[in-house]
Amino acid sequence: MIWIELLKDFVTALGLMMILEGVPYFIAPDRMRVWIAKVSELPDRSLRFTGLMLMVSGLVVVYMIRS
Question: What are φ and ψ of residue 43, in 5° steps?
C-alpha cells in the first residue's frame, strides 16, 4: 500500500501549495492585481527561467528534507 501513502503525501503537498498560493490574494488583492499586470508584461524567456529556477529550488528542498 505504498501507493496510498505516496498519494496522501502528494495530496497534502498540493493542499499546502494551494494555501500558500491563496494567502496573497486574500491579504492584499489590490496589490496582487498590480503585480499580476507587471508579470504579464515580462518576456516569455524571463518567465520560463523563473519557473525553472523555482522548480529546481523546490526539488532541492524536497530532496534535502526527504533524505
Answer: -70, 155
Are 44 and 52 spatial neighbours (Cβ–Cβ below 8 Å)? no
Q: How far is CA 6 from CA 3, 13, 27, 32, in A?
A: 5, 11, 32, 33
pLDDT of residue 1: 80
pTM for the complete prediction? 0.72
- Rounded CA separation 17/43 (Å): 25
Domain ranges of the chain: 2-66
Question: Which grid coordinates are listed for 50?
Answer: 523563473
Per-residue pLDDT tens digits for 20-56: 999 999 999 999 999 999 999 999 999 999 999 999 9
CA-CA distance, 38 to 53, in Å (whole number)?
A: 19
